[in-house]
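Notes from hallway chat w/ T.B., transcribed later so I don't forget. T.B. wanted the structure written out for a chain they're using in a teaching module, and asked if we could keep both sequence and structure tokens in one place. Agreed to drop them here.
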Amino acid sequence: MRSDDWYVTEDLDRFLAHAGGFLRSRPDLHTVALTVTESLRVRGLRAYGSDEPPVFGVMERDGEVRGAYFRTPPYRLNVTPLTADETDALAAHLVATGHPVPGIIGTRETTTGFVRSWQRHTGAAAALRQRQRLHRLGMLMMPQPVPPGRARVADEKDRELLIRWYTEFTESVGDHPAGEVEVWADHRVSYGGISFWEDPDGTPVSMCGVTPTVAGQVRIAPVYTPPHLRGRGYAGAVTVEVSRAAVRAGAEEVLLFTDLANDTSNGLYQRLGYRAVADFEVYDFASGAK
């Protein structure tokens, strides 16, 4: 592999013209790239709150796309699955372009190879931030007993609660909101992308989100229950209803990520019928000595 097998662009249309078919060939493994690029296409290149333009990269050999990446500043680089040789070429390419790489998200094999190459090229220190597992819905099952209440799609009157709960969710997982929380809430409401589980008196007690359908796939995220309401089955119940609605709406694959350090959520989603697809890792980089 050569570093010049990769090329970089800030032109989303050009990127999708070259890599769109490749991304759609494995909608499960490419779920984040598909949903993020679709959001950028529909909502504009500043959809994630930065004035710095997103960056896209494609690896092409013999007229065939073999890999892709994107980065929406200030967030980490997101990379499709690559071989060790391909990650080494990617590291050399990124060094040559001078684009900052504050971290990386990818399959475990991809991040392992890239971290090794990136450290060799840059001397940067790498810190493993999170291990994730991608799951795909198999046979959906409602956990028993079903908590009292019902699911309801969030609307405009729920905006303040969505903003508060999304902020609490990102804080609870040690992350930052993907753009302005108000814009996030408005976008989710616009396409029915958040549902609540309500208790019998109509008070929301848990929420579950879902991305728009792209290439036949949707991804469940975020799922959040305030700490004082956990352990009562609300998150499982609302996730089942959102998953069922996605299937009824025509989604061919319903996906979600879990934090492998969270035994509770991993056990819950397995009981709901979600099955493992692949393991992913999230790394942060610090400046190196070179």
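Follow-up for T.B.: The first helix runs from residue 12 to 25. Might be a good example for the class.
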